[in-house]
Amino acid sequence: MSVRDDIKTVLISEEQIRTRSEELGKQITEDYAREGKAPYAVALLRGSVPFLADIIKYIDLDIQYDFMDVTSYAGTRTTGDIKILKDLDTSVVGKDILLVEDIVDSGFTIEAVKKLLFRKEAASVKVVTLLDKPSRRKVDVTPEYVGFEIEDLFVVGYGMDYNQHYRCLPYIAVLKDEIYE
Ligand code: IMP
Ligand code: MG
């Protein structure tokens, strides 16, 4: 049995992701190069890993990267309140951070991580996300670089999971209705 049997539709193909990652990588390269800076990528585990691996290939700068794993208490606590499951291994003091996310939904996660990075004395923080669901936003936060805007749909694949499954799919998909039940 293949996990592919659980898919209803492929929303964004592997080729579309590759093309868009290349465009974003070029744009990021130009924006940072213009200011004579190189971004320090902070990727949020675990969903952003495939996208990070793609995008860094197209950023023609001396980019370095580190990882963080967080959970937001969206809805239950004040914004900016997150639990750090894995902190950065390196200092971000004075660095120009490029926060790499798989998907921005309510916005609680990136808003809280941005605050945290500024508290850790990052010089600047910009966000690159593969997907954005602006219709779901609960806090006023806008990613600087967006791969694709999508409707209010729960998606899987390309790093994104449903109960930890389906991360390995090479495209972004919507599951059959019965799977979500
Ligand atoms: P936010 O804090 O509400 O913006 O949530 C962002 C996080 O929720 C993402 O990093 C994902 O881990 C998860 N998430 C939001 N929407 C989806 C989805 O459609 N599929 C899989 N994970 C999602
Ligand atoms: Mg995530």
Describe this protein's structure.
With 181 residues, the chain is α/β, with parallel strands linked by helices. It has a single domain (20-152), classed as Rossmann fold (3-Layer(aba) Sandwich), CATH 3.40.50. The protein has 3 helices and 8 strands; from the N terminus they run βαβαβββαβββ. It has helices at 14-34, 49-55, 108-119, and strands spanning 7-12, 40-44, 64-72, 82-86, 96-104, 124-132, 145-149, 172-175. The protein has a 6-stranded mixed beta sheet. The chain is globular, with a radius of gyration of 16 Å. The model has no long low-confidence stretch (mean pLDDT 94). The structure holds inosinic acid and magnesium ion. Magnesium ion is lined by residues 44, 47, 102.
Write the layout of secondary structure elements.
Elements: E1 7-12, H1 14-34, E2 40-44, H2 49-55, E3 64-72, E4 82-86, E5 96-104, H3 108-119, E6 124-132, E7 145-149, E8 172-175
The structure holds inosinic acid and magnesium ion (MG).
Magnesium ion binds next to loops.
